Amino acid sequence: MSTTALLAFVLTTVLLVVTPGLDTMMLLRMVVGGGRTAGIVGGFGTTLGCVVWGAASIAGLTALLVASRLAYDVVRYAGAVYLLWLGASSLYRSWRGRRGPDAPPAEVITPAQALRVGFTTNLLNPKIGVFYLSLLPQFLPTSDGHTGWAVLLVGVHIVLGQLWQLVVVYLAGWAAVALTRPAVRRWTERATASVLIGFGLKVALDSGARG
To answer: pTM above the 0.90 mark?
Structure first.
């Protein structure tokens, strides 16, 4: 594998990582509900999910997602249901009996919950596995012994993703003074919950290409 190919992969990964998406919304939700600690732990949960997907990709297990529409749809619908449940339950707690400006926050997210949500959300996103199967081969050498390079590229993606998550958590924590005001926090939680529902519907309805 050439240095040029490695740099091209790093650039591509950076662009994909910094593009706002589901992981970014989840981190914001965790910081608002549990502070920077919950955000950092939740981001670590997402990273663990990427480790599982990367290992499965290197072992060839995620090829099943590309080869089988049923396997892909099972994971996709499970992820959609999980996102819809997260968003709907958060939205319900935010609105239930919380009308006054000095009402308590709608939801408190503990580090343990953040870890579970980050890990589960990532693990139930089949597009992560498809990402590894579709992108990595384009940067791997055609000669034998490319497994080591695959491990390296997966590691690069995981490290860059983790670093970006720390940046997002830091920036969100810096704005926490404004975000944690009762009225602002409730509307922020409602906004992020609505986005989660939107992502859930998108995942459920998106039957596009798997590779």
So the answer is: no
> From the CA atom positions of the chain, what is the Rg in Å?
18
Element (H, E) at 20: none
Share of the chain above pLDDT 70, in %: 75
- Residues of the chain with pLDDT > 90, as a percent, come to 17
Question: For the chain, first and last CA: distance in Å?
Answer: 23
Best CA proximity match to 50, nearest among 113, 132, 116: 132
Residues 39 and 27: beta-carbon distance below 8 Å:
yes
Query: What one-character-per-residue DSSP string does 155-168 give?
Result: HHHHHHHHHHHHHH
Task: Reply yes or no on whether the pLDDT at 66 is more than 80.
Answer: no
Cα 94 to Cα 112: distance, rounded to the nearest angstrom:
21
φ, ψ (nearest 5 deg) of residue 41: -65, -40
Cβ atoms of residues 79 and 128 within 8 Å = no
Question: Domain residue spans in the chain?
Answer: 3-205
